[in-house]
Each structure stands twice: as C-alpha cells, then as structure tokens.
Amino acid sequence: MAGKLVAILSGLALLAAGYFIGSKFGGDRSHVIVGDGSRYSAGADGSAGADNNSAAQGGRLADYARSVGASGKGNTIEVRDGESIQAAVASASAGDVIRVFPGTYRETVYIDKDDIQLSGVIIGGEWPVMEGDKKLNDAILYSGNSITVENFRIQHYKGNAVMGQAGNNFLIRNNHVIDTGVYGIFPQLGKNGLISHNVLSEIEDAAIYVGMCDNIHVSHNEVFNSVAGIEIENSRHSIVESNYVHNNTGGILVFITPGLPIKTTVDTIVRNNFVVNNNTANFAAEGSIVAGVPAGTGILNMAGDETTIEGNIISGNKNAGIIITDHMNAGNITLDPESEPNSDKVAILDNFMFDNGAEPIPEIKALKLATLTTGNVDIVNVGKSTGSCILNPKQYPTVGLGDFGTCGFTTTAQTVTYLLPEPAPKREIAKADMGKAAFHGICAGCHAYNVRMIGPPVQIIQALYMDNPEGIAAYAANPVKKRDDYPEMPPQKHLSEEIRLAAAKYLLELKN
Ligand code: HEC
C-alpha cells in the first residue's frame, strides 16, 4: 500500500523545528564498521540460510528457479477466441497446460487447483488479450499451488490483473498489464515465487505488490506510469533485481504496513535496478490515502529490517533517490504494537546515484535547512535506525545518516536468489483455521486493522457489523457501492458461503 509514503513526511516538520538536531544529525559514525554480510554467505557446510536457499550459491537464476511454476506434465487444453478460459480451467487437472490463443477474452478466471499452467500463445505478434472494459474486477485469481501465468496482455480491469491468494510456488512471467484499478501483479501470502519479464503501466496503486510473502524473486520487469512501481510489504527473503522502474510516483517501496496479520519485513535485497525519473503526478483514486503520495521518490524503506540496496542506478527522482524512515515519522499511521517500527540493519552499498532531490517536498527542504545541508540530496534518513550502514558514505550527498556506520561488506552477489531448492509444501489449513486463512489470503489485501488501504479499516467494519458476521459474508459475496471516496469492492462469490462466514467471524475478532 503505497499510501504510507504520504504519511511519512508530516513528521519531518517536527525535526525541522530544530528537535534533537545536534544529537541526531550531528553525529558521524562513518568510522565504525557495521555488518559483515554473513547473512549473504554460507557456512562451509552450507547450513546458513537453510530456510532461504542462500547457501553456497553461484551461477544463474535459472538454475535455481525450477521449484516455481507448473510441471506441464499433463494434457494440453486449447482455448481459442470466443471460448472461455474459465471453462478450460474447470476441465483441467493437475499438470495440465492451458494454451490460450490470440483473441479477446472478457472474463475473470479463478484457478483453485494445483499445478496448472496458463500460457498465452503469441502468434506473429498477436497476443491473447484479457479485456476488463473497466467493468470486470479481477482478471486472474489463483489459490492453487505451483501455478504459472504467462504471455497474456491484461488490461482495463477495475481490480487486479493477477492476484494470488495463498498459493505457493507461483511463476508469473512475460505478461503485459495495462491500466488496472487496484494492483497489477499481486501475490498475497505466497511462499516461493518468481515474477519476471512483465511490463506494467498505468496501475492506480502498486504495479507489482508482494504482500505477506516469503522467498520471492522479482526480476527483469518494467514498471512505469503507475503510482507505486514495486512494493515489498510485510514479506521476508525477497530479491528485487534488474528491473526498470521509471516514471512512477514512487519507484521501489519496501515496508511494513501496520495492522496486517503478518508483522515483519525482513531481508530484502534491492539490487541492479534502474530507478529513474519517478516523478509522475499522483493519480490514485481521489480521496484515497495513496492520493497523497509525494511524487519523486526513488526507493523508500519504511520499517523494513535488513534491507540491502546495491548496484542500482538511481537518477532523476526529484524528491529523493533513497528515503529510509520509520513508522513514528508517518503521521497518519497508527502504530502496531506487534510491528517494530524502525528501519534497522539497512545497508546501502555502492549505487550509482545522480541528479536526485532537485525539488524535494517542503518537509525535506526544512530538514536540510535545519541540518545546514546545502545542494541536492540523494539519500534521506528520518528516524532512528540501529545497525545500519553505508559503503563509501562520501560518494553521495545525504542527510540524516549520522547514525550509519560504514558497511563491512561490499556485495550480496553470492546470494543468487531466495527461491527454494524444492517447491514449498501446500498450505494445509485445518478447518478451525479456515477463517483466518481466508482473511489473511484474501481480505487483508485490501483491509488492514486500523489503516486505510484499498478498503476501509477492519475497525470500521467491526463497528458497522458488530454481531453480524452473516452480514459481512453476504456483503462480500455481493458488494454494493457504499462510499464515494473508495473504489468498489470486488465480489468474493467464488468463495463458498462457509469460507466467507468464517472470514467474517475472524475479522470481527481481530484486535490488531
Ligand atoms: C481488492 C480489494 C478488496 C478485497 C480483497 C476485499 N475487500 Fe472488502 N472492501 C473493499 C473496498 C474498496 C470497500 C469499500 C466499498 C465501498 O464502500 O463502496 C470494501 C468494503 C467492505 C466492507 C464494508 C461494507 C459496508 O457495509 O460498509 C466489508 C464488510 C468488507 N469489505 C468485507 C470484506 C471481506 C470479508 C473480504 C474478504 C473475503 C474483503 N472485504 C475483501 C475492498 C476489498
């Protein structure tokens, strides 16, 4: 949820007032060596990183990516212009490959089976097009494991282009996504997934939104003309590399949204990306929190721990190239007692940065003034950050990095990926946990506890539906437009009555 960016900067005003300037910004710990990069290298026995495949790597991503996507071992089902993709999914079984030929498909496809390969067939430059006409909500939803979605052009949907709902081992590649109303590619609550070679533009929130996931690789995508380019949120062990992220409002965002069921963002590597000219005026739905995201931010880390930023080319972002901040400086965030609010152990290694910070927002200007910083600034830190470091600190103009030591390591290259050597097992969900799983896997993509995301906060829904889970379940199946300043909620009719009711009961009991 890109919305947070907004918030960040109201807190800066405080600093500008002259607060703590001496102790906070006057320091210089650059002589202190911080971090030895051990989280990126394996012990001799290969034991390090047992849960994240980082041990003793080398070679190419492709060598490690065999654990994601469908097996393709079953039958082939063909779908041609005028036929239904959903009908093909209904007749498919695990291992099958659904080949969709060029044509225009106006439908929502829901894949609730495992090991399905949904492949567009591109012939002479003609693609299969999924067309939402600004009437349909989502293009492709999957809850199965080991799903491949590739070679589609997906456009003009009101909700998401591809949304994962607790599916593991996903592979989403080589799709074109244009003009969707919520998110573009949005795996939620998935483990072990690769998102590569997609091109996304004109997305009203985040183009690629990795939410509450583990072991994710996002590479070689182009994202532009969207409000947020790539977001890694409440996720662990992610690599974002070799993407071209340009002309968004904000480029790459790594953070914790408070009030979501999974509380941490840890170990994100952001490397070798082009993060350029992310100055597009905000065009999020009017009145929504994302509408306040200030344009001109290259990379933002808010409360994410162990984020390493390496080898990126970051230029032309008018607000700042990199902003590191915390929840306290985010004025309209309610702190989550279970989420640690600082950005700790951030490592800024060598990046190529130039021409950032030409027109910072007033709050950054004020911070510069208060710290007697002149000239344009590439990197801004606001708030307390423990154990963070920057390599060769003198190479960039910065403000607020007095607490950062000098990094004791120079690269993450030995960690090729965090994709798993073997597919992650399917999520087994006990009946008693059905409501929790449905809420985590689906509803939490748009509803946080006390913060406005795409939909209203859970607290508001609790107040409206106190003793009435049936009412929530009914609304989720057939939502009607209620609020002028929110988008419509996409219907969740594909979920059984039982699951909707379980999710509703879980929602009513949430406390943070
Ligand atoms: C893609 C985003 C999205 C997802 C996923 C989503 N919602 Fe919503 N929800 C919204 C939006 C947007 C609104 C506000 C709609 C409006 O006011 O017109 C909303 C509103 C609601 C409301 C308020 C209804 C009222 O009377 O004011 C309830 C209840 C609700 N959602 C329940 C759920 C449940 C339960 C789930 C999961 C099964 C869910 N939502 C999944 C976006 C979403």
Automatic annotation (TrEMBL):
Pfam families: Beta_helix. InterPro entries: Beta_helix, Cyt_c-like_dom, Cyt_c-like_dom_sf, PbH1, Pectin_lyas_fold, Pectin_lyase_fold/virulence, SCF-Subunits/Alg-Epimerases, SO_2930-like_dom. Gene3D superfamilies: Cytochrome c-like domain (1.10.760.10), Single-stranded right-handed beta-helix, Pectin lyase-like (2.160.20.10). Residues 430-511 form the Cytochrome c domain. Keywords: Heme, Iron, Metal-binding, Repeat. This is Cytochrome c domain-containing protein. The lineage of its organism: Bacteria, Pseudomonadati, Pseudomonadota, Gammaproteobacteria, Cellvibrionales.
